[in-house]
Amino acid sequence: MEDIIQIDKKLLVFLNNLGSEQWDSLWLTITNQLNWIPLFLLIFFLIIKSYGWKRGGFMILAMVVLVGVSDQFTNLVKNTVQRLRPNNDPQIYQLLRNLIDPQSYSFMSGHATTSTFFTIFAILLLKEKYKYPYFLLLFPAFFSYSRLYLGVHFPIDIIVGILIGVIFGNLYFRLYQKLDRVSFN
């Protein structure tokens, strides 16, 4: 396990040091959840357009609950594992380009988990109505990578977050389908 952790740290240092000042403001913008509001509004619009206000509203409510569940689950894991963030890791922090300085724990990435969870659920809701919903996967890809660029998560934090997001997105969709059948059929 120690070998994996060392590889994880070396990979982060490598990826983080690929950054440059000319791109820093872009990645700081990408990592900020509020800057993605237009994408969320587009998704909500497409859901309402496809399913109407009543059923679409139920879907949007399910998405709001999803974000809350994902956030709480991620915080539970972070507080249980208590892995230091790279920017606080005495072994590597001086090797990183640090642009922000969060103090919470690192494992697993809430950005990766929640954005993937949300996106998978949105894709599953929209794939029958729209031709290219998989383009939405660009959101968690860029959002997650921003955390490596900024040096605040290790690659394993991101990979596990994405995997958990995919699993939870699919499971949540199955649960949603059961509730939808009861409510709208």
Count the domains: 1
| pLDDT averaged residue by residue | 94
Q: Looking at the chains present, what oligomeric state does this protein adopt?
A: single chain
Determine the strand fraction and express it as a percent band: under 5%
Query: Which bin fits the share of residues in helices?
Result: over 70%
The CATH architecture: Orthogonal Bundle
How is this structure best described in words?
Helices cover 70% and strands 0% of the residues. The mean pLDDT is 94. With 185 residues, it is mainly α. Helix 2 (21-31) crosses helix 5 (138-149), helix 4 packs antiparallel against helix 5 and helix 4 (110-126) packs parallel to helix 6. The protein has six helices and no strands. It has a single domain, classed as Orthogonal Bundle (Vanadium-containing Chloroperoxidase, domain 2), CATH 1.10.606.
Secondary structure: elements and pairs:
Layout: H1 2-16, H2 21-31, H3 37-81, H4 110-126, H5 138-149, H6 155-184
Helix pairs in contact: 2-5, 3-4, 3-6, 4-5, 4-6
Domain Phosphatidic acid phosphatase type 2/haloperoxidase: 60-173
GO molecular function, one term: sphingosine-1-phosphate phosphatase activity
Transmembrane segments: 26-46, 58-77, 105-125, 156-173
